[in-house]
Amino acid sequence: MDFSLCFFLLLSLFFTPSSSTPPSSIFEGSSLSVDRPNDVLISLNGVFTSGFHSIGDNTFIFAIWFTKSFGPTIVWTANRDQPVNGKGSKLLLQKGGKLILTDAGESTLWTAAAATPTSTSAQLSLHDTGNR
């Protein structure tokens, strides 16, 4: 193999973004699952995290919290009064921007629609202010 090609391949390995870094956005048709503990969104500035947060034995809420607080300082939750089961529950971003939180039995517990319908692909982002 040519030395310059080998050097380029090695260089690209070192500067390729890690797939283990949580995203700050998901796109339509994607979901965040309670079954995958690392399935979270982190704001670009790293201040806020959003995902499923355990509040008891096999009981979760979908929340936004401060990433680097001493304890989990939750600033918002979608389902405070209706926690979901630790298996099979998910937050799904549907086409058109509708968010749906379902529990293990696929019952809808919470929904939110996009502020303005769009003809482009929907995207859910966690902003640096903690808003979605």
Explain how this protein is built:
There is one protein chain. By secondary structure, this protein is mostly beta strands. The chain has a single domain (23-125), classed as Bulb-type lectin domain (Agglutinin, subunit A). Helices cover 10% and strands 36% of the residues. The strands form three sheets. Strands 3, 4, 5, 6 and 7 form a five-stranded antiparallel sheet that branches. It has a four-stranded antiparallel sheet with strand order 2-8-9-10, with no helix packed on it. A two-stranded antiparallel ribbon has the order 1-11. It is globular, with a radius of gyration of 18 Å. The N and C termini lie far apart (48 Å).
SSE blueprint:
Blueprint: H1 3-15, E1 25-27, E2 31-33, E3 41-42, E4 48-56, E5 59-66, E6 74-77, E7 84-85, E8 90-93, E9 99-102, E10 108-112, E11 123-125
Antiparallel strand pairs: 1-11, 2-8, 3-4, 4-5, 5-6, 5-7, 8-9, 9-10
List the keywords.
mainly beta; five-stranded antiparallel beta sheet; 1 helix; 36% strand
Give a short overview.
The chain is mainly β. It is 10% helix and 36% strand.
